[in-house]
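Changelog-adjacent note: as of this version, every example in the card shows the full chain rather than a window. The one below runs 584 residues end to end.
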Amino acid sequence: MPHIPLFSSFWRQITTVTTTFKSKSSFHQTLSALRSCKSTEDLKKVHAQLIITGQIKDTLTATKMVESYAVSARNIDYAFWVFVGIDSPDSYSWTTMIRGFLEAKNPEKALEFYGLMRQRGVESNKFTFLFVLKAYGLRASYQGGRIVHGKLAKVGFCSDVFIRNAMIHMYLKSGSIRDAHLLFDETPKTNAVTWNTMIVGCFGCGDTDRARRLFDEMPERNIGSWNAIVRGYSMFGHVDIARSMFDLMPERDLVSWGSMISAYVQNGRAAEALELFKEMMVAGVSPDSIIITSILSACAQMGALETGKWIHAYMKKNKLRNDIFLDTALVDMYAKCGCIDTAFEVFNSMPQKNLCSWNAMLSGLAIHGHGFAALELFKKMESAGVGPNDITFVAVLSACSHVGSVKEGWKKFNQMDKEFNITPKVEHYGCMVDILCRQGLLSEAKELIRTMPMEPNVVLWGALLNACKVHGYTDIGEDVVGSIRKPVSEDGGCLVLLSNIFAAKNQWSEVEKMRKMMKEMGIEKKIPGYSSIELDNVIHEFFAEDRLHAKWCEISAVIERLNTHLEVEGYEVNPLLVLYSIED
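Full-length structure tokens:
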């Protein structure tokens, strides 16, 4: 059972209740008073008055108090405290508690209460079953849901469209698309909610084709139908199809805009997310905190600092209530854009911090080379009693790489499993390889790759080969060359690096072998890498050897002047660091 809170300040608040309320003892006036409450503290004052007047002894009044605590204030502990004081809780009382546990994201406790309700012989109503079906869906409990389905058939509730929708949703959440479809086909009267439930469920089960067929067959679509299809395609990375459906929408709401913006951000297309956000603002649609969080993530991806600052100012101007997610997104944006001081200001001003908040600040420090600051922050995180996860250690190990401490790197790497029960992933091995390679410990790095418990990926081989090039180490070994073939079947970056290492030592026969290998593997020259910069709220992207930019001539002239200045200052190009083109 939930923890029963101590009312240390509760009774003191009784004296603050006005005497005018005492005379308003009718049930409807009590309802009005409960609806006007905006916090748990407000509810406690009304609760106190109900105890004084004796109204709390009325089952319906007490249940309304339970509902206000559990659903409106999301305080299941206080709700339970009131519930246990009801002499004879009825079906509405029990159902309200079951609903409350669902609101508290605790389907297990909701089902436990349902079991107690049945033991006490209290009859379930339609609403009870709706919440119980939802609980079984959240637990993905097929067998439990089937038992409830049987009970519903016995009491004759299966014909109710809301009950059928809840059963379809439960089966889909439990992964049984067959049972869901059977119910759907047997339903004599289906509404848009039924169709939408099926569409969302099919996407959830990975059946995109069936979801699209259902959408096309719908007799009548609502905005929820369009949002379901946009979100569904986005979930599987089909962003262009999602956008085509978004463009066809007869009307859009905040969910529509938010779903499409989030799709762009989650699939690494931040520039398009920012462009769509501008369209939304021009259309006169005000963003909510969810959209703002997505846009801040897009700014972080693009390094769009000025846009991020504008968003921050917009939040302040429109008094958008900062929550832990918005604050974390702000920290992440400022940190990734290089404004470490501002990121720290936001971070330190947060009234509450979760693991994501700490990780955002740690990662920002690490990627910008503030290794010592990141390691110091990690110590503060441990002192605050916040347990790290695998993402935390990617940042911490990256910080060790920047400070050049092999000893500290091994210490943190070994801490993962021994102290925090976190199994190192390929990313953590990659960080350790990078630490070793930066210090020229190439044999140790090669041995770590050889003994790691999973297949090394392109990043690990790339780190090793790049270090070999920097340190002029060409004795790679046939075992490494052979191992590289597997992880780079679709990415020739490692083979290009290997080819350049041999070319730097004039080992042209080896270069020819690498090129032949690339040809056999079907590796073609990919789209070149690019960099971006924000100027006057416009994101400019530059590809390697790109001459398409409107001001390419001016940019080239500036680069030439920079090269001249470097030569004057005595800079000499290190030929070992020059990459040869695949086609050379």
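Structural remarks: The longest strand covers residues 530-535.
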